[in-house]
Hints:
This protein is of the alpha/beta class. The chain folds into two domains: 1-27 and 63-88, no CATH class; 29-62. It is built from three helices and six strands; from the N terminus they run βαβββαβαβ. The N and C termini lie far apart (32 Å). One of its GO terms (molecular function) is lipid binding.
Amino acid sequence: xxxxxxxxxxxxxxxxxxxxxxxxxxxxxxxxxxxxxxxxxxxxxxxxxxxxxxxxxxxxxxxxxxxxxxxxxxxxxxxxxxxxxxxxxxxxx
Length: 93
């Protein structure tokens, strides 16, 4: 059995942690003043707080596009993973 672990950027794992435990992290879309950023990719934590100070409205988040998740799971299957444990926040948290 080959198990893949997937989570999203709300886990705030370090590169060292993701490398050590072979965890795949999916960026969460963050919308600030109508512009969408992928957390951890085109928006760092420092940039987020800088933008938050100057934002007209409170930022919101979205879920990753379902197509990207399907592509990720298919890619993991192609790499020989037969089980995926995918850990994410619920919308009610």
